[in-house]
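Protocol step 4 of 5: obtain the predicted structure for the target chain.
Materials: sequence only (see below). No template structures provided, no constraints applied. The aim of this step is simply to have a reference model before the mutagenesis design in step 5. Sequence pasted as it appears in the construct record:
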Amino acid sequence: MVLPVASQRKAGALLGYANIVVKNLVNLVYTPMLLSFVGQADYGVYQTANSFVFSLTLLTFGFSEAYVRFYTQKRARGAEEDIRALNGMYFMLYVVVCSVALGLGLAFAANVDTFFSGSFTPGQVGLAGKLMAIMACNVSLTLFSTVFDAYIVAHEQFRYQQTRQMCTSLATPVIAFVLLNLGLGAVGVSLAQLFITVVLLALNVRFAYCRLGMRFSFRGFDAALFRAIAAFSAWIFVNQVCDLVNQSVPNMVLGALTGATVVAVFAVSVQIRNVFVSLSTVMSNVFVPKINRIVAESDDNGELTRLMTRVGRYQMFLFCWVYCGFVLLGRFFVSRWAGEGFLDAYYLICAMTLPLGVPLCQNTGIEIQRAKNRHKARSVVYLCMALLNVAFTWVASPYLGYWAPAIAYIASISLGNGLFMNWYYHARIGLDMGYFWRRNLPVALVSAGVLAVCMGFVHLAPVSNWLLFLVWGAVYTTLFALAMWHFVLDGDERASIAAKVSFLKREA
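Step 4 output (structure tokens):
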């Protein structure tokens, strides 16, 4: 059964957060399992190889993000044949992209000693080559699946999308565990991911073609349409380059200039940092089609501001609760989860994630820019920040180790997202950022107060075992909820919550 659009958004958001919970609960077991099977050094090799091959996703050149916009425009005009032609163009485009990605990935694998012979042992170099070859196949198939995944998103089928992702989160470690026990090591982990990718591709093809009626037309080539898509996608591509720099280049540089152990510590910190990113993108992603419709039909900046503020407020609540909780309890968690050798990852996470709070509660603004075709400026600024990031990381890594990319990341996020983007949203896009921050800044300030109080108490009774971890987590969550209820939520928000939670309704 296909749910109505509004229900799809709600189901997608709820399932998305459930998926995050499931994924991270799985990772509580998965990452330590990998470390125990393959060791810290080989785990660093695995992360380094993954970072190299992941760079191949740039070959999409932003075309996948452009699909929803152009599909929405054509559907608004009722041009069914044009939609089929759009699908056909994307199909052929991604055949080319995937072929190039596979070729380059195999070339990386064949020349792996060129990159790592100076910092890896001969055994680690050989392992990196095998991993890159398997990962290249994985990336190629993942990119091809984008053709069908974009069509599914355009139809706002978020329940299917998130359910599929949850099954992936559960299945991957199970298959990896079997292969690890067969003695395949890090290679087994890559093979498990490849198998899941093949299954997901088959499921996407079946759902898009059979359930949603996706069809293709390969008659002729619409050069004008391709130029329009390419012009729109070019600056999204620049954004993707910047994201790659922040996500993967540090691992590459650290692997080339330091060693596998340093990469492993930084990779663990990035893994947890990405949890915060996922908390934000789940909610903003379900509004992408709606934002494109608003811009196409009315381009009402007032409505867009209210949407961005409402979504951003939910994201700010969630970010502050999780971030402050991690600052309070994360040191114990990291030491038990990854091991004492990864304790520095706690400080890396705290430092890198704090400035990330600003863009994470403004992700809807990115989609507004793209819908308005006003994303060039953001791309240019991010590119400058990315270049400075790479330069600083390359120069400082031999002296600062994993703190070099962390410092570079903090600076780029603070300047690019914190200062420039808020000015740009207000002065150039036409969104009321004063209204946005009047509604959302109190959430951060009250959260900081709750954290300060809890830190004082935890200092008197430090977290030394899992029982105290759970107790302090419950105490912190209770104080956080009470503080938000009394000092942040307005009357309408309290009434809305009270209407949904029976005991609060009776109390009210």
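Step 4 remarks: The chain has two domains: 1-221, 234-434. The two ends are 38 Å apart (CA to CA).
Proceed to step 5.
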